[in-house]
Amino acid sequence: TLAQQQQQQRRQQQGSPLGSAGSARPRTGSPGQRQASAPKLPKLPFAAERVQQAVQQKPALAWHTESWLQVQEQAPEWTPGQTLPRMQAATRQQKRTASAPPSSLLPPVAAQPLDEASQEQQKQAEKLEQALSLLQKTLAQRHPLLLAIFGSYALVLRQQHGGPDPGLMLPYSAWVALLEDCRLIDAQRPGPKDKEFLGAFKASCSGKYPLSPQAPASDMLMRFEYFEALIRVAVAKYVKPGQCREVHEALGTLISEHLQGHLPADMRQDPNTFRANLLYTPCIDATLRRAGGPL
């Protein structure tokens, strides 16, 4: 029927965006409401041509434009909200740099003269540094000899459980024997310097160590403490009486006159050299292997 055809046409018009004649559907709402509901597109940065035109019209924008272009080249993924603060910071830095006078135009700053106390302290520091350098050089030159003597007089230290690994330590009895062999002290005729020579051991010792878990702890010197004790002996024997002015000279004299001059040759040899030359041979190895069971 005619009523059914009209109702079907109205349904088709409501379901499609266009009418039956192809015309657009009528817009609803005011222009202001349609503008408010429209989605906002993100603002794109200016093109290079627009930037150049702005610089030509207003040369004062040259620095800002250059900063903007540098920022875009370094990090093009930055948003405008991140770019603007960095441009402003660069502009402030440029203004500070431009307002500051060049360093060549600044008047030279005169060095403040040191007072007598500061000058004396500086001289003492330089003198101490030079003395330490010369002393280190002397120890480096005589280092193999000093280590060989230490190894000959030192004992193998056996620590308790939880202590450091066993190593060479110089007990007080070995220190006394070393001074006697060097003819620095004489047990039969004590001299005026014997107390200082023996006291160098105590002054250089930093702690007590046990020879075994059952033995009581006693004072012992480590290698660096042994070097310190020798330096104290050299100062007491040569520097204090005025025979030498420098510590390194006193130490060199002590080594030459007493350690090399009076110690037996076997006490000045490195034990490892003896083992390598006489014990670590095929003949000794074969003999030890044959007697391995009883040993």
Structural overview:
Residues 1-57, 77-121 are annotated as: Disordered. Residues 1-14, 98-121 have a biased composition (Low complexity). This protein is mainly alpha-helical. Among the domains are: 48-88, no CATH class; 128-288, no CATH class. Helices cover 59% and strands 5% of the residues. The chain is built from 13 helices and four strands. Strands 1-2-4-3 form a four-stranded antiparallel β-sheet. Strand 3 and strand 4 form a beta hairpin. The longest helix has 26 residues, at 116-141. It starts with a helix and ends in a 5-residue tail after the last helix.
Straight-line distance between termini: 129 Å
- Unreliable stretches: 16-26, 32-47, 159-164
C-alpha Rg, in Å? 47 Å
| Main sheet attributes: strand count, strand direction, barrel closure | 4 strands, antiparallel
Strand order of the largest sheet: 1-2-4-3
Beta strand count = 4
Number of helices: 13
Q: Decide which structural class fits the backbone.
A: mainly alpha
- Please tell me the overall pLDDT: 73
Assess the beta-strand content as a share of residues.
5-15%
Q: Work out the helicity level.
A: 55-70%
| Molecular shape | elongated
Multimerization status: single chain
**Strand/helix succession:** HHHHHHHEEHHEEHHHH
Biased composition (Low complexity): 1-14, 98-121
Region (Disordered): 1-57, 77-121
